[in-house]
Amino acid sequence: MSVIKLVWNYLLAKPLNTFLNIVLLALGIAVITLLLLFNNQLQENIARNGRGIDLVVGAKGSPLQLILCNIFHIDFPTGNIKLNEAERIAKNRLIKQAIPLALGDSYNGFRIIGTNQQYADLYEMQLQEGVWWKKNLEVTIGSNVATIGKLKIGDAFASAHGMTEGGHSHDAHQFKVVGIMKPSNTVIDNLIFTNVESVWIMHEEHAEGEEADHHHDDEEDHHHEVAADFKPSVLVPSVSANDSTHEITAMLLDYRSPMGAVQMPRMVNSQSSLQAASPAFETARLFSILGVGVDILMAFAYVLIFISALSIFIALYNSLKERRYDLAIMRSMGASRLKLVFTILLEGMVLTVLGSLLGLALGHCVLALMTNLVEETQKAGITALVFYTEEWILLAGSLLLGLLCAIIPALQAYRTDISKVLAGN
Amino acid sequence: MIEVKGLTYTYNGQKAISFPDFIINQGEHCLLLGSSGSGKTTLLHLLGGLLRNYQGSVITAEQELSRLSESALDAFRGKQMGFIFQKNHLITALNVEDNLKLAPYLAGANIDEKRIEEVLTRLGIASKRTAKVTEISQGQAQRVAIARAVMHKPAIILADEPTSALDDTSCEQVIQLLMEVAKENKASLIVATHDQRIKNYISKQVILTPQY
């Protein structure tokens, strides 16, 4: 016999009541856990994906789309920009680093990114095996691309035009896998990297093959002419500086000084064909839009928790009425008032702790299910297998909630006049 | 063992009830007789330390009960007293065995498995050790209640109307069982009752009369 056993037996004596109370609380806690896990990871990933990038420059359009496409690789490109125009900005003295991005093709739904080694350095990408892409048509692939796309080093594949599966296939040229990266739990895992020139080669063929056709995707419209002059471009050294024929999708910029943040966006946006978007600003905007939905769900979760607290209070209060005689008997057997008060408080706390533990487990399970069913969540780098310190706070909070629910019933037990109850009045 | 002198108890500061003086020696059994309203349950509760704030003197096991603090009184009850109530109230959330374990647990004493076996066997309900209290008969429940009261070998067993709801045969069985168990545990048995049938078993009697 122990106080836990006593409390547990009392809870088991009313299985349905206990079940209802635990499930009610668990639902509330599960919603909060889910939001917590989702929100935290999204923010972490956004911070990780956007690190070291102060500004993204691309074609005019939605700034949010520019960020989503070029940093998170989820939206479509806004269009293309001329290499020489991008170069002019890259050469500005306020810019420490400029990384070109050329998008347009995919393989089995995995995006092919034409960029340089600086990109790999920026994201601290690490090789699992093989080497980084170097020559034209060489690719280094993310870990998901290797496993899901069933690619290994030495394999060749033809890319498809566009960002989604089932696009027009570029059969004339084949990419060759030279390296596979370590899993990073970021969007990198789902990307295929090659150099900018390879993307041009693909679309050179594309442009020639469909010259007569109308190009529905303007952003894919790359023209390529071999440049003879060799004053290499700062962005793509294989072509000459001030090349007016080549195009890239976007450029990732890193400021040299905070002055850049003041001057650059305005400077870029004043040029008619270019647009600058700040990842920090746009993601904050995105979160404020998402925030409304999150707030509503949170409010819903708190309502659930409030109802469960009420339900636990009522259950304890009612069961205490039935147990007045039990309590009096216990007093007659030598139990002190405090022992009984403690028992009742513990009963409330056991209920809420069980509820919140179940809720935490449920939250993680639902997220695990979500990541398995919805590919996008996986691509966004969200996993159910992380635990945050906030979860301890939830647990501690529910302990407090149990205490709160049990306080009035416990006081009632404290005040019980045992003689009166035992005399049968 | 028990000495009552000039005892008066006041209900809610209005109705006062006075009790005769009496002394019960160790191992001696005693009946508190009286019709309902004569205050026999009140007297039993006073003797058992369930009621405090009395005038006069109640000395139980050489202890003036009014001098004990509330928690000391709880501990005192847990050690010296065994209660049997009219309704045999058992804790329905617990099985027979755990009901018995509750007494030493609540009193802060060690739980003696051998003692449980011994008491249950003595009362002929050893086979019901793990049964739910809702699944045993009324007679068995009464035996469990008796077992619970004597688990910790109290000096005094206080029984409130233990037989009033029973037929003649059961009444005889219960009172004899109580006396035997009390004797075996060297305890004084004090029974508050209006049941005239018990008179023949216990000679020492305190007669209470309604005073209002």
Automatic annotation (TrEMBL), chain A:
Name of the protein described by the UniProt record: ABC transporter permease
Recorded superkingdom: Bacteria
CC annotations in GO: plasma membrane
Membrane-crossing segments per the record: 20-38, 300-320, 340-372, 392-411
Ranges for domain MacB-like periplasmic core: 18-199
Start and end residues of each ABC3 transporter permease C-terminal domain: 299-417
Species: Chryseotalea sanaruensis
Subcellular location: Cell membrane
Lineage, broadest ranks: Bacteria, Pseudomonadati, Bacteroidota, Cytophagia, Cytophagales
PANTHER family attached to this UniProt entry: ABC TRANSPORTER PERMEASE, ABC TRANSPORTER, MEMBRANE PROTEIN
From TrEMBL, chain B:
Entries under SUPFAM superfamilies matching the protein: P-loop containing nucleoside triphosphate hydrolases (SSF52540)
GO terms, molecular function: ATP binding; ATP hydrolysis activity; transmembrane transporter activity
The entry's keywords: ATP-binding, Nucleotide-binding
Domain ABC transporter: 2-210
PROSITE patterns registered for this protein in UniProt: ABC_TRANSPORTER_1, ABC_TRANSPORTER_2
Entry keyword annotation includes tRNA processing: no
Gene Ontology, cellular component aspect: plasma membrane
InterPro entries per UniProt: AAA+_ATPase, ABC_transporter-like_ATP-bd, ABC_transporter-like_CS, ABC_transpr_LolD-like, P-loop_NTPase
Keyword flag Nucleotidyltransferase: no
PANTHER family listed in its UniProt record: IMPORT ATP-BINDING PROTEIN
Protein name: ABC transporter ATP-binding protein
Natural source organism: Chryseotalea sanaruensis
Lineage: Bacteria, Pseudomonadati, Bacteroidota, Cytophagia, Cytophagales
